[in-house]
Amino acid sequence: MKVIAFVGSARRRHTCNATARFLDNLRSMGDVETEIVFLSDYHLEICRGCKLCTDKGEELCPLQDDRDALLAKLFAADGVVFATPNYSYNVSGRMKVFLDRLAFALHRPRCFGKAFTSIVVEAIYRGREIVKYLDFVAMGLGFNVVKGSLVKSLEPLTEKVRAANEGKIDRQSRKFYETLVKKELPAPSILKLLMFRWGRTSMRLMLDASFRDFTYYEQAGWWTADYFYPVRLGPLKRAVGRMVDGAVARRIKRQNPPKPVAGG
Ligand SMILES: Cc1cc2nc3c(=O)[nH]c(=O)nc-3n(C[C@H](O)[C@H](O)[C@H](O)COP(=O)(O)O)c2cc1C
To answer: Model's pTM, two decimal places?
Structure first.
C-alpha cells in the first residue's frame, strides 16, 4: 500500500519531522510504501478562478504547471496526509494553492475507501481550526478521515512538549494504519448523507449535460443512488435522504431560479 504526504512547508523542520515520524511509524506497522511530497519542489500556479475545471473538466485548466503530476500521486495513493504549518491562523499559502487546484474534485469526489489524515504544526495557537478545515476538505474528497493532529513547535522545545508531540503522532499513525488496511466503505453520517443528497438533487435539477458535474454524476449512477457507493442505510437515514431529496426539489420548483451557465 502506498501513502503519500503532501507537505506545505518549504523548510525541512518541524512539519517535515512530524510527517517523517508519522510515515516511519506506518512502515514499521506493515507493508506500506511512503513518499513525502514537498509542494515547494513543484511548480504550482495560483488558481485564476475561471471555473473551467469545475464546470467543463479539469483537463481544460489553462495553467501549465505540475498540477497533474501532484494529482496523479494523490489519486493513486491508498492513503494521504496533508501536513502544513500554521501561517497566520491558516494553512500555508502553498497548501492553499494546492487545495484550490484540486477543488474540482470536491465537486466530483473519488477517494472512497482511502485513508486520510492531517498534521498541523504551530508555534502558538489556533491550529485546531486548521486541522478541522483540512479534515473537512478530505471528507469532501471522499476519504475515510482519521482526525488530524496539532503539533507544537515554539522553540526552545521542552522535553515535555516534544514527548507530547511524539505521543500524538504515534497514536495518530496507529489509527491511520487501521483505517488504511480496512479500506472500508462506511455507512455515511447524517451530515454526509445530507450533503450528498442535497448536492446531487440540486445538480440533477439545476444543471444539464453541458456541465462536467452533471455527466460525472450521471455516469456514476448517482441520480438514483442512496449514497456515493453501495451502502445499507437504516430506516432513519433512508427517511432523511428522501426528505432532503424532496425538500430540495420543492424549493427549486417553488423558487424557479435561473439555470446556471457553464463557464459563467
Ligand atoms: C509567515 C508565518 C506565519 C505564522 N503564523 C503563525 C500563527 O498564526 N500561529 C502560530 O501558532 N504560529 C505561526 N507561525 C509559526 C509556524 O507555524 C511555526 O514556526 C512552524 O513550526 C513552521 O513550520 P516549519 O517548522 O515546518 O517551517 C508562523 C510562521 C510563519 C513563517
So the answer is: 0.97
